[in-house]
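Hypothesis: this fold can be encoded by more than one sequence.
Test: take the structure tokens below, design a sequence, compare later.
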């Protein structure tokens, strides 16, 4: 595997995938993105794995992409798109159930992992944020694909256009996540669900997941368009302004006000 990801294959059929960069709130490097994109296929083929549980070390699930990496160039955008698609659709298309255990922050790419899981267990006080529009980039990929199905179109439009953060408790109320529990209980609750699934009828579970996945697969056109628009915005003037404002510790000035 790669630095920043720990794999624990348990004898009960549950494989735990831990994002393991707690000093930086498990922010993801490009190498981690690549590793996760191929990991789902690997675990789907692994005879010993029946269920995957993904979580984060320390006090956060994942703060998203590591901002200490070099800025993405226009030439790199197709590769960025490939990584995002592999991260999301790797989970959607694998036959085995994936459970996420989310404490603290789940932002950006971290939120993709948290919500793409088949069952999401989050802390009541978890901090969930897509945040794309806040930095001058169209909300896309997982948010356009998943959020209208999970919480309804009206909530999705509001939360994504306004970059509105959510607690785990509120996310459960609107149907964005499966279960919200006290932070100290998150991992135990997620593991209990994963163990129960691992001991259950595998074919029935996998065929149920496969059937339900058709709703997401039919949304591929919306995913592709939103991803393209997101990538176009990454090198655009609003995103450039947002990055400059972040470095200079000031409020960004967008659009017609520039």
């Amino acid at each position: 595997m790669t630095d920043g990801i720990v794999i624990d294959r348990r004898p009960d059929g549950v494989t735990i995938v831990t994002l393991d960069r707690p000093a930086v709130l498990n922010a993801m490097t490009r190498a981690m993105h690549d590793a996760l994109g191929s990991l789902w296929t690997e675990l789907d083929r692994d005879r010993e794995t029946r269920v995957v549980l993904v979580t984060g070390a320390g006090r956060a699930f994942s703060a998203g992409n590591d901002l200490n990496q070099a800025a993405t160039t226009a030439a790199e955008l197709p590769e960025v798109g490939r990584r995002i698609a592999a991260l999301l659709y790797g989970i959607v298309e694998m036959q085995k159930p994936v459970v996420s255990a989310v404490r603290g922050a789940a932002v950006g790419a971290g939120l993709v992992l948290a919500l793409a899981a088949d069952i999401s267990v989050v802390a009541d006080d978890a901090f969930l944020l897509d945040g794309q529009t806040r930095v001058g980039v169209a909300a896309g990929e997982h948010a356009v694909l998943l959020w209208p199905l999970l919480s309804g179109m009206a909530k999705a439009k509001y939360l994504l256009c306004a970059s509105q953060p959510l607690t785990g408790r509120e996310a459960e109320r609107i149907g964005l996540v499966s279960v919200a529990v006290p932070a100290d209980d998150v991992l135990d609750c997620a593991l209990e669900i994963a163990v129960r699934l691992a001991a259950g009828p595998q074919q029935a579970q996998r065929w149920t997941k496969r059937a339900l996945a058709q709703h997401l697969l039919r949304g591929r056109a919306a995913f592709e368009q939103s991803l393209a628009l997101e990538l176009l915005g990454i090198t655009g003037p609003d995103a450039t302004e947002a990055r400059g404002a972040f470095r200079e510790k000031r409020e960004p000035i967008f659009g017609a006000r520039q």
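Strands lie at 5-9, 14-19, 51-56, 98-102, 105-107, 119-123, 127-129, 166-167, 179-181. The chain has one domain: 1-181+202-258.
Hypothesis status: open.
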